[in-house]
Write a structure and sequence with these properties.
Blueprint (H helix, E strand, L loop, with lengths): L14 H22 L3 H25 L4 H26 L6 H23 L8 E3 L3 H15 E2 L4 E2 L6 H13 L4 E3 L6 H6 L1 H16 L5 H25 L1 H9 L9
Antiparallel strand pairs: 1-4, 2-3
Length: about 260
C-alpha cells in the first residue's frame, strides 16, 4: 500500500509586505500603459498610488517583523518600474519627445539615475533608521514629476500648458542629479508613539501636508514637494557655508551624524 504524504503549505508573514510591493509594481506598469494611451492624468495618479503601496509594504514589514533580503530586492525592482521607468516614459510622451535626442536623454536620466540611487541604497542598507537620508529618494522624484503634470496639464488641450513645457527638461535634470547627490533630506516620520514623541514637529508638518493635499484635491502636491526639495537644498547650502566659516567645528559635528538612505 502506498502511503499518502501530507504536504503542509506554509505561508510566511513576508507574503504580506510582498503583496503590497507587487501592487506597487503593477501600478507602475498600469501608469506606463496609461502614458502610452496619452492618459497622463491617470498615469500620474497611478504613480502616486504606487508610492502609497510602497509606503504600505514598509509599514507591513515592520508590523509583521518580516523584513528580508528578498523583500529588499523585490522592492528595488518594483521601485525601478514605478518610479524610474513610468515617470521617464510619462515625461517623454507628455512633452520631451518634441526635443528629439535631447528630450530622450533628459527623460532617460530619471530612470538611469533612479537606478543608481536604488543600487546605492541597497549597498548602504545597514542601520538606516535615521532622521535624514542622503540624496533625494526615487519615490519623491517620481511624485514630483507626477504632481507637475497633474498641476500643469491642460485636459481640454491634451497637453501641458505652454508656460510649463520649457521647465520639463530642467525638472528632469534637477531631480536626476538630486537623487545621486549628497544633499540630506528628512525621512518620513514613522507612525509610532516613540517617533511622535521624538519628532513632534516633523509629524505635525507631515500631517498638515496630508490635510492640505486632501483639501486641495491634490492641487497642492507639486508645491509641497518643491518646498521639500528646496528645503533640502537650502539646508545643504547652509551646511557648506558653516564648513567654510568653521571647518573644524563642522567636522566634529559630522562625526556624530551618520548619513544613511531613506526607506525607498
Amino acid at each position: 500500500m502506498s502511503r499518502k504524504r501530507k504536504h503542509n503549505i506554509r505561508i510566511s508573514r513576508a507574503v504580506i509586505p510582498s503583496f503590497f510591493t507587487i501592487l506597487n509594481m503593477f501600478s507602475g506598469f498600469m501608469s506606463i500603459l496609461a502614458s502610452a494611451d496619452r492618459d497622463f492624468v491617470s498615469a500620474a495618479w497611478l504613480v502616486v498610488l504606487a508610492a502609497i503601496f510602497d509606503t504600505l509594504d514598509g509599514v507591513m514589514a515592520r508590523l509583521t517583523r518580516s523584513s528580508s533580503e528578498f523583500g529588499v530586492e523585490l522592492d528595488s525592482l518594483s521601485d525601478l518600474v514605478s518610479f524610474g521607468v513610468a515617470p521617464s516614459f510619462m515625461m517623454y510622451k507628455v512633452g520631451l519627445h518634441s526635443l528629439g535626442p535631447i528630450g530622450t536623454l533628459a527623460s532617460a536620466m530619471v530612470m538611469v539615475f533612479g537606478g543608481l540611487r536604488l543600487a546605492r541604497f541597497n549597498v548602504q542598507l545597514v542601520g538606516f533608521d535615521k532622521d535624514y537620508f542622503k540624496g533625494l529618494p526615487i519615490p519623491s522624484s517620481a511624485i514630483t514629476i507626477s504632481a507637475f503634470i497633474l498641476f500643469f496639464f491642460n485636459s481640454n488641450a491634451g497637453s501641458l500648458n505652454a508656460q510649463a513645457t520649457p521647465f520639463l527638461p530642467a525638472l528632469a535634470v534637477l531631480l536626476s542629479l538630486l537623487m545621486v547627490s549628497t544633499v540630506r533630506y528628512e525621512t518620513m516620520p514613522k507612525l509610532s508613539k516613540r517617533a511622535i514623541r521624538s519628532h513632534p514637529l516633523k509629524f505635525m508638518a507631515f500631517s498638515l501636508g496630508i490635510i492640505i493635499i486632501i483639501a486641495t484635491l491634490g492641487r497642492a502636491l507639486f508645491w509641497l514637494f518643491m518646498l521639500y526639495i528646496v528645503g533640502g537644498l537650502i539646508r545643504w547650502l547652509v551646511e557648506h557655508i558653516k564648513t567654510l566659516v568653521s571647518p573644524r567645528k563642522h567636522a566634529e559635528e559630522e562625526e556624530d551624524v551618520e548619513l544613511s538612505s531613506f526607506d525607498i
